[in-house]
């Protein structure tokens, strides 16, 4: 009989093999000893056989030890994607937090760390925390979280880390601190489990969802611009929905023009005709890409699109303008809607 002797599966196979060698007799009222008893001696060797319970217990101990080794040292048994992502993230411990940072040589922000760690294990994630928190599959609560799960905070999401187990996460916390392992200090608003793509080229590159009712003739324009500037297509279509309801002829009382409601001066700076849907979408995608790079947050990028980047910088977040706050909520809401 050939038995795999490697890893937990091998230990379980050995248990099965051991079980096949024993016949455990059911105890009866009239039988005090039995040749098939688990404590029977081996006449041929003159030694006492180990009891079945002892052998089984020893084998189970081996399984537990191998499983513990797999958790503490994933590479010893191949590891899973989440554990490898944790190991990758730990390489950046001590790297300083830099807002908008994606280069470990200069600094990382929270979503930059997450994106970098998963890139190191072959998975491409979106750039900003709110989009990362839409990837993979939902985990119901922290009790069910596994190493490598993304733990996100805020509504809309504005902070994210990688769960390492035992109630802790590896994270780029905030300005003045370095990448470190710390407690999950409050209840996450989202926990997401990332799966390895069957083909690296199929790894997700943007958020899912988006508003309903995108005109068929515009879908390819949105998709092309989103890919060209590495902006989630759901974000681009959601902005268009909020701005004009997909109306290329819309003109606002303030003078914003077209599908993406670009001000004439902004359109001139981008070199686009705001009344031309293809050019308007291209220009808006470029603007959103700049804001995402600058602020590292979907909600702040959306706020900058509405109120201008200067206002976001001045207030250190979404400006306290009722119009802008409602606009951000509307766009983020569309992003979570049906495709």
Alpha-beta classification = alpha+beta
Q: How many alpha or pi helices?
A: 12
Give the beta-strand count: 10
- What's the helical proportion of residues? 40-55%
User: How confident is the prediction overall: mean pLDDT?
Assistant: 79
In what range is the share of β-strand residues? Answer: 5-15%
Order of helices and strands: HEEHHEEHHEEEEEEHHHHHHH
**Low-confidence residue ranges:** 1-6, 22-48, 66-79, 198-208
Describe this structure in words.
This protein is α+β, with helices and mostly antiparallel strands. The protein contains twelve helices and ten strands. The strands form three sheets. It has a six-stranded antiparallel sheet with strand order 5-10-6-7-8-9. A hairpin with a 2-residue loop joins strand 7 (159-165) and strand 8 (168-171). The longest helix has 21 residues, at 52-72. The relative contact order is 0.09.
Compose a concise summary of this entry.
The protein is α+β, with helices and mostly antiparallel strands.
How are the secondary structure elements laid out?
Blueprint lengths: L6 H14 L20 E2 L4 E2 L3 H21 L8 H10 L11 E2 L3 E2 L1 H11 L8 H4 L4 E2 L11 E4 L5 E7 L2 E4 L8 E4 L6 E4 L22 H14 L3 H12 L19 H7 L6 H19 L2 H10 L1 H7 L6 H14 L4
Antiparallel strand pairs: 1-2, 3-4, 5-10, 6-7, 6-10, 7-8, 8-9
Helix pairs in contact: 1-2, 3-4, 6-9, 7-12, 9-10, 10-11, 10-12
Key attributes of the depicted protein:
339 residues; alpha+beta; six-stranded antiparallel sheet; two-stranded antiparallel sheet; 12 helices; 10% strand; elongated
